[in-house]
Design brief:
alpha+beta, T-fold, 8-stranded antiparallel beta sheet, 3-stranded antiparallel beta sheet, 17 strands, 30% strand
Length: 334
């Protein structure tokens, strides 16, 4: 069978179950715009009185999104995260309050998940080929061992008083792919609220915040897609003022010798996760939390993931596993 590499960046994770209101005088408008940012598709849908009002708000939202891209995108050599990765081993690097906040939250999630979530997996992502302009590949044992020596979230030293970041290992590299999108969703949602928007959906590559209600007074409905059949919905979530983030092995992967290698790396083994989990969706008050926990639970496996959720207030989850071709769903008790 020919070897292939697949990238599914948005619709194959989560499908929004919604229909657009017709724009007409006196009726609310569900106005939508979409752009490509930070290597993924970002879409904003909001309920407004007119498209003219929406245009002014959208200009502010996209300006903020572009600013955040200049901070967090690893694809931009001049971004703040790129500067940190280049310089932080050689000297403590001063960072913005915004970056310090995200890195501190990342450390909190790493502690909470016993290291299943780890933003220092950047070198591992590279040797497996999960970066733009690289082909998926299986590294040698020697490559893995050398790379693992450069990984470890505890080697990221955050000095809160000085607002600096310092790497304690040479070659360590931060990858905020499992967190930055969630933060972007949270920031754009906050901006919409500041502009007086009460009902909206912000979606960055499948990381979603559902603000308020769908027109007509019901909750927003989010369909979770079957991980092996993009035309099938596994279950439907109804959300109001909640975030949902999904991690799946069908989003960015390659196949070798009929084996699937996902971009979600187990920081302990240095290999794509083999937990039998194929999809995780986490619902939380904010999207950054949902984003980080979804990645961690994918690595932890179904039992440990569900047990983790039982310890966290106001967080829910759905874990999907595949074993011998059978798909199973596990729901948290929350």
């Amino acid at each position: 069978m020919p070897e292939k590499k697949y990238f599914y960046t948005l619709s194959s994770i989560i499908c929004l179950i919604a229909s657009l209101f017709l724009i007409s005088c006196g009726q609310p408008v569900l106005y939508k715009e979409t752009r490509m940012l930070m290597g993924t598709i970002v879409s904003i849908e909001m309920v407004v009185g007119s498209s003219g009002v929406a245009n002014g708000i959208m200009d502010k939202v996209w300006a903020e999104a572009e600013r955040l891209e200049r901070v967090f995108s690893r694809y931009l050599p001049e971004s703040e995260i790129s500067l940190i990765n280049r310089e932080a081993f050689y000297r403590p690097v001063p960072v913005s309050d915004e970056m310090m906040n995200v890195l501190s939250r990342a450390a909190d999630i790493s502690r909470l998940t016993d290291g299943a979530f780890d933003i220092s997996v950047g070198p591992l992502m590279k040797i497996w080929g999960f970066f733009p302009e690289r082909e998926g590949r299986i590294p040698s044992e020697a490559e893995l061992a050398a790379c693992l020596a450069r990984v470890g979230w505890q080697a990221i030293e955050l000095n809160q008083s000085e607002r600096t970041v310092h790497f304690l290992k040479p070659g360590l590299e931060i990858d905020l792919g499992a967190l930055a999108k969630g933060y972007v969703v949270d920031r754009l949602t906050a901006l919409l609220i500041e502009e007086g928007i009460e009902n909206a959906i912000v979606n960055a590559g499948g990381d979603i915040y559902c603000l308020g209600e769908y027109p007509g007074g019901r909750n927003w409905r989010i369909g979770l897609e079957h991980p092996r059949d993009e035309d099938e919905i596994l279950t439907v979530l109804e959300l109001k003022n909640r975030a949902v983030a999904t991690s799946g092995d069908y989003r960015n992967y390659f196949i070798r010798s009929r084996l699937r290698y996902s971009h979600i790396i187990d920081p302990e083994t240095g290999r794509p996760s083999q937990s039998k989990v194929v999809e995780v969706s986490v619902m939380a008050p904010d999207c950054l939390t949902a984003d980080g926990l979804a990645t961690a639970m994918f690595v932890m496996g179904a039992d440990k993931g569900i047990n983790l959720l039982k310890k966290i207030d106001d967080v829910d989850g759905v874990i999907v596993t595949e074993e011998a071709g059978e798909i199973k769903l596990y729901f948290s008790d929350n």
